[in-house]
């Protein structure tokens, strides 16, 4: 990538951040307003509400997201598939996963981890 192209790419990213900042702050403040202190059983329902809010926020920005129950608090799983760009081998595939979870999670190999 040339310096000129790199500069245009950076400017595009910064412009996007400026445009999206109000919506991002709104998502953050909606989440912070939920009293989801996970160590206190009195807030268990709020933890579920917070998980749903996280999944909604991920969906708002283009992720596929779902809330999964666990033995403890719910887990939020999100995936976003990268745009396809041809590489040297003519193929490209990429995905990003975001997971927030309780103490027990399932690892990709299916085994439980504390």
Describe the structure.
There is one protein chain. Strand 1 and strand 2 (75-81) form a beta hairpin. Mean pLDDT is 76; it is low at 90-97 and 99-114. With 114 residues, the chain is α+β, with helices and mostly antiparallel strands. The chain has one domain (34-113). It is built from 2 helices and 5 strands; from the N terminus they run ααβββββ. 41% of the residues lie in helices and 19% in strands. The chain has helices spanning 3-32, 44-60; strands at residues 64-68, 75-81, 95-100, 105-106, 112-113. The protein has a 3-stranded antiparallel sheet with strand order 1-2-3, with helices on one face. Strands 4-5 form a two-stranded antiparallel sheet.
Please render the helix and strand layout as text.
Layout: H1 3-32, H2 44-60, E1 64-68, E2 75-81, E3 95-100, E4 105-106, E5 112-113
Antiparallel strand pairs: 1-2, 2-3, 4-5
Poorly predicted runs are: 90-97, 99-114
* Secondary-structure element string: HHEEEEE
Strand order of the largest sheet: 1-2-3
Using the alpha-carbon principal axes, give the shape: elongated
Using the CA coordinates, give the radius of gyration: 18 Å
Number of helices, where a helix is a run of at least 4 consecutive DSSP H or I residues: 2
The count of domains is 1
State the total count of DSSP E strands. 5
- Protein structure class: alpha+beta
Helical percent range? Answer: 40-55%
How would you state the average pLDDT, rounded? 76
Sheet with the most strands? 3 strands, antiparallel
- First-last Cα distance: 43 Å
- How much of the sequence lies in strands comes to 15-25%
């Amino acid at each position: 990538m040339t310096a000129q192209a790199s500069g245009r790419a950076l400017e595009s990213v910064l412009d996007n951040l400026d445009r999206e900042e109000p919506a991002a702050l709104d998502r953050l403040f909606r989440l912070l307003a939920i009293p989801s202190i996970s160590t206190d059983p009195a807030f268990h329902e709020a933890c579920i509400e917070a998980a749903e809010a996280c999944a909604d926020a991920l969906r708002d920005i283009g992720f596929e997201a779902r809330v999964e129950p666990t033995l403890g608090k719910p887990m939020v799983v999100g995936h976003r598939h990268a745009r396809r760009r041809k590489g040297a081998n003519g193929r490209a595939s990429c995905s990003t996963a975001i997971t927030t979870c309780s103490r027990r999670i399932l690892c990709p190999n299916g085994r439980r981890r504390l």
